[in-house]
Structures are given as structure tokens and as C-alpha cells.
Write the C-alpha cells for this entry.
Amino acid sequence: MGVKSDYRFRHRHIFGMEQLSEPDIQHVIATARSFREISARSIKKVPTLRGKTIVNLFFEPSTRTRTSFEIAAKRMSADTFNIAASTSSATKGETLVDTARNIEAMSPDIIVVRHSCSGAPQLLARHIAASIINAGDGAHEHPSQGLLDIMTILDHKKELAGLKIAIIGDIAHSRVAVSDIIGFSKLGAKVCVAGPATFIPAAVERLGARVCHAVEDAIDGADVVMALRIQKERQNDPLIPSLREYATYFGVNRRRLEQAKPDVLVMHPGPINRGVELSPDVADGASSVILEQVRNGVAVRMALLYLVMGGEKSDDGQGGV
Amino acid sequence: MGVKSDYRFRHRHIFGMEQLSEPDIQHVIATARSFREISARSIKKVPTLRGKTIVNLFFEPSTRTRTSFEIAAKRMSADTFNIAASTSSATKGETLVDTARNIEAMSPDIIVVRHSCSGAPQLLARHIAASIINAGDGAHEHPSQGLLDIMTILDHKKELAGLKIAIIGDIAHSRVAVSDIIGFSKLGAKVCVAGPATFIPAAVERLGARVCHAVEDAIDGADVVMALRIQKERQNDPLIPSLREYATYFGVNRRRLEQAKPDVLVMHPGPINRGVELSPDVADGASSVILEQVRNGVAVRMALLYLVMGGEKSDDGQGGV
Amino acid sequence: MGVKSDYRFRHRHIFGMEQLSEPDIQHVIATARSFREISARSIKKVPTLRGKTIVNLFFEPSTRTRTSFEIAAKRMSADTFNIAASTSSATKGETLVDTARNIEAMSPDIIVVRHSCSGAPQLLARHIAASIINAGDGAHEHPSQGLLDIMTILDHKKELAGLKIAIIGDIAHSRVAVSDIIGFSKLGAKVCVAGPATFIPAAVERLGARVCHAVEDAIDGADVVMALRIQKERQNDPLIPSLREYATYFGVNRRRLEQAKPDVLVMHPGPINRGVELSPDVADGASSVILEQVRNGVAVRMALLYLVMGGEKSDDGQGGV
């Protein structure tokens, strides 16, 4: 696994890539790989988390992340409960902590939380006993996405060290970008970001990324090109180019991709705005590993649910599964 | 079963009654009958589809069809996931095929899909590996409804061959009508349709139905009277009569039903607008088999989920269950 | 248990505290106590209701009551189905009874129903075969809340007989208040209600409560203080004080609580409007048992689901579990 024998995964909560060491990241991915084959079986279910209660507490709507966690949980036989903010008592004036304490009183083992405020998962963890997994907090972090992105790259490249990874788009509003930059950098990759100037925060260099003036510079010689999603909802904002302008100046298309390495991987956290961030031929092309990202997402989430519950995989990868 | 011993159900997808042969239809119903008794047991659960992942992907809201599929799936121990279009990334500009490919990457075995576009299920099946079951596509087909209607009639009549079946109402906008007309005709019934002229498309005769000028002509001597639901949502359309006019001229009431056979079956796909399509005494009367339709719906959907996964029932109806 | 040996719980439906005898209430709570420890186990699941179908039919939104019933059901291995009115065919003009009959045709064992009309659960029970549990009907009753409140008090006090219990707030619109007043009175407590005059219905004395002129009178010497939730949605009503006025004149704060017994229990059915019905220091203070109420809610609902299915616990509290 590349993890020393005296290594132990010691995190009860997953707040972000920030907290994970390189051995932690490698251990999550090794665990995820051993879980990945479960989803390829005829009977896609193991008893690992039988009798555990997992609450998906989503204050922002998300079909794909929520479904990915729900599938991960049920494949390990946990009981899952979806609580959406729009139907929750959040609208009745209850505070986040009150909501969480009330959920806690129902004895969940894990709360997977998405919230529009950065730091909401840490706030919950200070007040309740269940394990917390951050499924996206404001523009802060989205660690399961960062981990599945690393797993997907490592399926194709021997290691991240020495790779050039370009991240293109709305860095400023993207928790995916933050988790990716932190994670990729920890494993030794060089990360270059590019996008409209209003989308590139000054602080990004402190995370370990280099800001490129032009998309072409970021893609030049890249081993991985990650295109981020444009929030169409923000189209009224005068600071943001129109979708057509964006596609013209920042979209990843066949021509721009020719400057990358021949074995470049094209990635996107989804859902794709086809013809905006990615041209359709690139999205569906031989370099695209976008659907592998989704597949690995279930495996990474199985691993996180398992590990925060204290699971330890034996060396043959079968223990406890 | 009335099915020859060398018969095999060979469909991996269920798009419509159009694709099913008479032996297919008989086999689905024989399978559904063997599953029906499970719902009458104290422990309503068999391990048939344990570890299978079934996604209900509904781009149009539907409590009853979705719940019926969900109950069918859970009674066979499958894991089910409900994805509603209103909360899905469909609203984020993702195409249907992108949505489906992303779901596919999570390794579902079956996707049950409802969509406002005719042909959406076939489109999905061309792009992804999971089995597809059409739970209603535009005004095209709703095959599980067609099958449960046939099952319900066969519970009371020896065969469909030779029966006169009247279908009353909004034929033009009804996928139920299409699936019923195709299925009933394949099994040898004579189908007569009647309703407001603006509700009767010219093409209906090509499906095998005869158009009657008046409701009375359709009901005269009928063995089965199927009333379709009026979409109240369409009440602003000037082509459509008011609900009161509809009830007066096209509603199935006691007086009109006297012209049918004495052992006529009254059916409706639900939900009923009481006092519009059916008078309350007819809806709740001795001839009504409307709740049997709902009951058979769960059994037919269990059979479809089972059969698209390659199930084969042994002759005693117990195999694999 | 304080229940005679020839006692049997004979209710197939739970409509309200009104129908339950004192031995019934004691039996539900004894059963709930034996179930409570399941939620504290590492594997929170027993096979008690395996293969049972439980439908949560909610015509009014409720995250916490619905989730509490859903967790209770899944901890006993039942299959649960959530049907929300906003997505149900209720909006398509179907009557409540039609909706219920259609659900019944899918063979549920228990329907947990919340509806804005008083008496809806009884109406359902007259027309369908499944057991009905009232999860709140109009301003009538909310019996599982009444039972969990009694359970919580009995965890701290030897018996209810002789206790003084103050209920503060919007008595007129509160089904919690009704179930509490009936239940507390049956077990011998003296209940005093207080609140804005427009919130105190004349009929409350017929339920067994005494109306106090001032909050201070109700709290004076109380063993339990139950604060009810103010419906912020009603803030446009001129009969209702503003939230600030309410907090000033009727809010339970440290100063007012000093008039209660030293070992007073502070309760609230949740969700709390902090700073309105309860000051934050009181809500989170040593006297507060609000989260115990939530915890006991799961146990009481497990007991109710179990008992309406005909379960009988053996004397050691282990039978059937």
C-alpha cells in the first residue's frame, strides 16, 4: 500500500484535505480500491456497516454527492436517512447546532453534511458525538471529491509527484479546487490554475498553486487537465463572462488540449456544461476519465465511512469486508 | 402458464408493450402471479434481488408509480435510490445522457425511468449498461400499467380474446391508453375508444382500436370499461370541456354502465377525479377492480425487475424466490 | 412494569392519548425502555419487524417526527416508504380515502399519518386494513409526543401522580398540548396552562388542565415546565403578540424558572425558537431534558410500531426483540 506497518488512520471526522497526511491519503485510496470491486459484483453488498445509522444532512441540494454517499452506505449495509434542508426545521428558525443535536439524539453513527457555510462540519463536531464527514462546506473544502480525484489520477499515473496538473475555471467559488490543490500539492504535483481574472483569488498561491496568465500556459505540458464547472446561476453577475465568451477564452477543447502531454487525463467534477467548460469531443474523448471519477467516488466514500467508524483493513484487503 | 416449455423471456429492457410478444406478456403475468402472494405474507420479503441496486429516475413527479416500483424492489431485497428531476442536476443543464452515464458509473443494475419525452428510455439504453424499465415516457408508453391492466382482466376473464374493451377519455395524451390498446389488441380483444373529439387522435386506429362516435357506443356490450384520467392542469385549454361538461357527456356513471355486459369490469389507472371520469357509486361499486389494479401493479413490477435481471421461474413458481 | 400480569395491549391503531388507559401508557413506556438500549448498541438493529412495510404518509411537512418514525422502523428492520403530500396525488384532486385505499392495495402493515384535519387517522382506519398511527392530526392529538414526554418525566420522577406540570404557550393550536394534558392528567399530574389569552381555549379545562392567569402562577412550584413552540408563520395574525413581546411576557427564562421546584424539568417539543419560548441558558441548562425527549421519541415509536403489530414483550423485556 505504500503505508508503513505501524500506520493507523486516526481521524474520526473528515473535514478536509488539509487535515490528512500523505499516508492518510494513501490509506484512504488503498482502502477504496479494495472496496471498489464490491460495486462490480453481482451481489453488491457487504455487511461491514450493518446496524449503523448514517444521516445525509444536506443544507444545499445535491443529487450526485448525496446519492454517491447513499449508495456507498447501503453497499456496506448501513441504514441511511436523507434530511434535506428545504424540508428540515432549519426553515423553522432552528440553529444548525440545534438541528444537529436533535439528530444526534436519534443516535446516528455518522453525519454526512453539506452546508453553505465554511466550517459548518467542524462546528457540528464540537457539539455532537457522531462522526462528521464534510460533503462540501461553502467555498472551503470537499474532501471526498479531492480524494476521488487523486484516486483517479493514481489509476493512470504511477504517482502524483512531478506531475503538472492544470485546474481551469472558477477557482474562487470552488471547494473542489481547494481540496484538489491541497491534495495534489501534498502528493508532490505542481498545480497551475487559470481562468477569468475575477475567478482567481490571490490566496490560491498560499494553497500551493501557481497562477497562470492564460489557459494555454496552464495546459502546456500538463499531465492532467481539470475543468471546473461554471455556475450558470451566476450569469447575472457583471464580473462573469457570458457562457459563449467563457467557452471561447477558457473552454478546454481539442485545440487547446494538443499542448498537453499526449497521455493527458481530462477531468471534471460534474455536472458538465457541455460546450462551455469542455467541448463535447473532449468530454467524451479518449483522454476523459470523468466517469471513472464518479465510479471512484462511491469507493472513496465507502472507504471514508468505513475508516471513520474505526475500521482497519488487514494487509490482504479482505479484513472486515 | 400457457407458455411453451422452450420459451425464454429475452428482454433486458422494458420500453413498451410494442416490444412484447403474446408469450412474453403471458410469462410476465404468470411470474407476477407467483410473486403476488409474497405481499400477502406476514413477512413480505424474499432475497431474490439482494445486493442489486435499483434507481428510480423520475423526471416527472409520480408518487404511485414510483412507490409501487420501490415497494416491488424492496420486497425482493434490492437497494433502491430515488432520484427526482427537481433535485437532480437536470436543472443544472446536464443532458439526459450525461445524467444517466453518471448514474451508471455508480453501478446500478436497473434504472426505472419516467421522462416527459417519448423515447427517453431507449436513448438511455443505447448509452448505458444497466437494464432500463420505462415507467412512462411522454405520451408514448407506460408498459407496467398495460401489463397490470391485462393481469387484472385475466383474474376475472378466461382470456382477452373476444372481449370488447371500452377506453373512455383523453386518448391523445395518455400513455396508459397506448400501452393498453397495444396489449389488449395483441391478446385478441376488440378495443373501442371514445371521448371528446379533440382527445381522439387519428393515429389511434393504427394501434388497433376502433373509434366510437359516442361513449354509449363504446360501452354498449363491453366486457371492460376503462376510464382515463382528465388532466385538470389542462383546464385552461379551450379545446377541452369543463369538468362538469366532461362528467355530463363522457363520465362513466350507473346509467351508462347499464349498457355494458352484466359482469363488466370498471377500471381506471388512478388517481380518480371522482364525479368526473367516474361517478362515485361506479368507482366504489361491485364492478370496480380499480384497487386490484394497484395491487397487481406491485406484483407486475416485481416480475419485471426479476425478469430483466435474467430470472427464470421454475414450473412450480417457487424457483429463485 | 407496574402492569398486571393479565394485561394485554389491545390497540391496533394509535389515534390519541384519549384512547389509552393508564396500564396502556405504562406498557408502552416499559416496552420503549426495553427498546431504548438498542439505539445505544454498536449494531443498532433487531429483526423484530423484518419484512413489514411501514408507510410514512405526511400531508404536512415534518423532518423530525418523520425521521424519528423512520429510524424507529429501520432499527427493527422494517421497510419504510415516505410519501409526502406535496408530491402525492393529493394535489391531483384525489380524496384522502382514495389515497389511503391505493396505498393499502400495496399491502402496508402500518401507515403513520400526519394530516392537517383532526380525525383523519380515524377516517383512514375505518376504510383500510393496515394499522394507523397518528403522527399529528390538526390541532387534535400527537400521541407519540405525549408518550415520549411522559417517558422522559418518568425517567426523572418516580411517578406523575402529584406533580405540578406547567404548559406555557399556544395551547389553542397545539396537538402536543392536548396529548400532554390528557396523558399527564390520566397519570395523576396537575396540569396548569398559561399563555396569551388568545392562545388559551375555553375547552382546555375540560381536558383536565387548570388555566393560570400569569406564566408566573403556572411555573410557581412546578415540577415540570413545558414550553410550546410559537408558530412564526402566524406572525401576521393581529391576535398574536410579536416574538419580542412573547419572549418578554411568556418566555421561560432563568428568572421565571426560579419560582419552580429546584429539580424542575424543562421540556419543549422542538424545534425551539431560541430567545422566544426559552432563553438560551434555560434551553441548554441543567434542568433541560429536551434532547432526552428526542432520544425517547425513537424508543416510544419503536414500541408503538411493535405493539400495534401485536407484539408482546416477555417479562424480561427480551421476548421478540
